[in-house]
Amino acid sequence: MAEREDLGVGQLLLAEYQSVKDEQKARIGFRDNLLYVTLAVVAAVIAAAAQAKQPSMLLALPPVCVVLGWTYLVNDEKISAIGYYVRVDLGPRLAELVAPAGGFTTFGWEAYHRGDTRRRSRKAIQTVVDLTAFCGVPLAALAVFWAGGDAGGLLIALSLLEALAVAGLGVQVVLYTKPARAPR
Prior knowledge:
It is built from 5 helices and no strands. The protein is mostly helical. The chain is elongated.
């Protein structure tokens, strides 16, 4: 009877694994597409502002980049959280069912790919890409707007609020880049 219960629990754990991996896969696709969407929006806004010769149109970029950047960041964090959950919780529970005495590792890829010697440099480069796409570009747009010099006080105040929002996102991007060491 205990063997049958363990098999049922094992099947449930494998089903949970498949479910969280499906969610992770969907989030990865969504997250990665957000960079392309951001590039398309940036190109469209810059083209429209240049064609209309209206630097104030560039004020559309910071809120759009902040929203897309925050969505990107939240999805990235959930992707990492799923991997952490599989490595630290789900995998060990399944391994205990398979080999109660220990010595069995499940889902080895979840830990293996994190040991790549170039992982740190890739993470650093990705952080620079994220900061550039979601923070650098809107700050550059604000700088062009400010250099235009013919904006009213309300637009200047709006642009300063946007700069604060972009800076806040930049801080979050850097904070989320640091790997979590403690359980979530």
